[in-house]
Amino acid sequence: MTLRALVTGGAGFLGSHLCEKLLAAGHEVLCVDNYFTGARANIAHLLSHRRFEALRHDICFPLYVEVDCIYNLACPASPIHYQSDPVQTTKTSVHGAINMLGLAKRLRVPILQASTSEVYGDSQVHPQREDYSDNVNPIGPRACYNEGKRCAETLFFDYRRQHGLATKVARIFNTYGPRMRRDDGRVVSTFIVQALAGADITVFGDGTQTRSFCYVDDIVVAMLRLMDTPAEFTGPVNLGNPEEISVLALAEQIRRLTGSRSRIVHRPLPADDPARRCLDIALARRALAWQPSMALEAGLTQTIAYFRALDAA
Ligand code: NAD
Ligand code: UDP
Prior knowledge:
The protein is an alpha/beta fold. About 40% of the residues lie in helices and about 15% in strands.
């Protein structure tokens, strides 16, 4: 059945891949974005598609459209971007969630929230499971994002309890792949751009902090499956690749895969940088019959090819 799907943040990295997959599955897509960190170039190839429509709109303001389901992805996701205008980040997470939940309530349609591993803060429990509470600093520089996303989760569950909405929360861990911005400061894009340019690869701290990196296509498949779950299934559900790697090992792997002779240099660790990020995906395996299929080396190879092609263009 063809559905009309609303994707907020649809011109961003994850959102543009989600729009593509929804179109490929035969659905209509309304992409809503204010282009704060997204780009028209990410959706340029979709604009002529007869089932695709793009609308410039800031979700901090109400939106009146008719759709059958809502994927709420709008929010800057890289630390340098979400910290560049922290008040707007909180507004997007909180006011944006209220507006999109209000729309879902009027239309009585399911709504999925792109939440984040950052709700766990600097977790003291490894791997992170959905029932782990948190270790979040509410007043630090990352708080606008962490606390904004936590409040959005609260709103999703309260709208469900109070208004009976079919709400679904995905806690997404570090995701990478083509269409990451080269200047967004996130570690995978930054290291690849540095390695390809022969510039120093900047490891923050001693590089022993870890992350679990998931290829974008795997995350998009999981989001589609989550939307397809019965109304009773709400999550929160961790989505990511449980393979954990230190930032230093990632730098070395990217240097090897690019054949770069860049030096690896160390820079100060940013405040509140989580020491360890690895996830338990037992719930996603069970409820979504999902697990990531792309190994890190293969995904990095594809991402490197994307950045090489950009350099060549
Ligand atoms: P992104 O910055 O590429 O995409 C976010 C999009 O939202 C951009 O197109 C931006 O212009 C748009 N946007 C921002 N504020 C808006 C507003 N007020 N109104 C309308 N549009 C707005 O980031 P991404 O990596 O694609 O992340 C997408 C979502 O997934 C975010 O909600 C993010 O928190 C979540 N997420 C991403 C990751 C990751 O590793 N990429 C991890 C966890 C969670
Ligand atoms: N990082 C790094 N060098 C960089 C950019 C990031 O060492 O040039 C580190 C950063 O300190 C963090 C990890 O890489 O420990 C992941 O950073 P990113 O901003 O990609 O995501 P997040 O911290 O939100 O998980």
